[in-house]
């Protein structure tokens, strides 16, 4: 039997969030969910053991894999700030709690994004993010947890990041739109270069200058070419939908967010159909 790509949904992209997202994903015919840690202002909800157990129960009842936890608050609290700032202290706390959550919930991946306030603009930023990733990798290594960097770097810069962090459990979280919308890079070309370093994938699309704002294949980000590249390198991990189905500019209160998501599920599955068949 050929190993298959699995399809999932980022919790923060779902019109339905919270533990019920597991049932929703099953009804959509998906295989998994990437969880959101939640924000600092609400004490990182997924750090609470009671809430963790509710998610685990719902996932088991609906045969949904919980594949990763995303530390999305790093968009607002900078890994790149000086160590003595409140910004950096929150960023470090968020990563620490995410690793602890992954350990208890047996999640295989902690995704650490470097966008927004954690965007890498300079060599100093690069080194600050590398330090955060290195610390996270060391904390996660004993449990076999992967730390995944999602960033706006080029493929060559990502390879340098992997070398300088120097931890075998550091991987790259690939995205089919971020490279293009941030710096004009080609996601398909990056996939070929990074191939074995990719642990999981986000798919989204958008027209020029629009983030997560078009159904897959209807934007300017070479979605189908990215699918081909993933097939060519033999990728067999999760591919998670990350379009913003209930937000502007994709949805200006004039569309059914659930139906938009259903359309993207169909596009996603069809685009991988030949690769996802078993023999």
Automatic annotation (TrEMBL):
Residues 23-268 form the Xylose isomerase-like TIM barrel domain. It comes from the Bacteria. InterPro entries: IolE/XylAMocC-like, Xyl_isomerase-like_sf, Xyl_isomerase-like_TIM-brl. Keywords: Endonuclease, Hydrolase, Nuclease. One of its GO terms (molecular function) is endonuclease activity. The keyword Hydrolase applies. The keyword Hydrolase applies. This is AP endonuclease, family 2. It comes from [Clostridium] hylemonae DSM 15053.
């Amino acid at each position: 039997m050929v190993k298959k790509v699995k399809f999932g949904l980022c919790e923060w992209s779902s019109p339905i969030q919270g533990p019920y997202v597991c049932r929703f994903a099953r009804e959509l015919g998906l295989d998994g969910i990437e969880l959101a840690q939640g924000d600092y202002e609400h004490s990182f909800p997924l750090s609470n053991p009671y809430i963790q157990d509710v998610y685990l129960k719902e996932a088991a009842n609906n045969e949904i894999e919980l594949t990763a936890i995303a530390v999305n608050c790093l968009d607002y609290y900078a890994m790149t700030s000086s160590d003595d700032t409140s910004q950096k202290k929150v960023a470090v706390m968020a990563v620490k709690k995410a690793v602890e959550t992954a350990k208890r919930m047996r999640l295989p991946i902690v995704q650490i994004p470097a966008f927004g306030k954690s965007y890498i603009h300079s060599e100093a930023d690069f080194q600050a993010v590398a330090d955060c990733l290195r610390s996270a990798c060391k904390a996660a290594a004993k449990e076999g947890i992967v730390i995944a960097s999602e960033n706006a770097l080029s493929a060559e810069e990502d390879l340098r990041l992997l070398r300088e962090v120097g931890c075998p459990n550091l991987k790259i979280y690939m995205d089919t739109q971020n490279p293009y919308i941030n710096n004009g890079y080609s996601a398909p070309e990056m996939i070929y270069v990074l191939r074995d370093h990719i642990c999981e994938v986000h798919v989204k699309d958008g027209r020029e200058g629009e983030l997560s704002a078009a159904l897959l294949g209807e934007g300017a980000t070479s979605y189908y070419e990215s699918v081909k590249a993933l097939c060519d390198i033999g990728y067999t991990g999760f591919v998670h939908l990350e379009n913003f189905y209930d937000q502007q500019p994709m949805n200006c209160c004039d569309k059914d967010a659930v139906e938009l998501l259903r359309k993207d599920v169909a596009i996603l599955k069809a685009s991988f159909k030949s690769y996802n068949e078993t023999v």
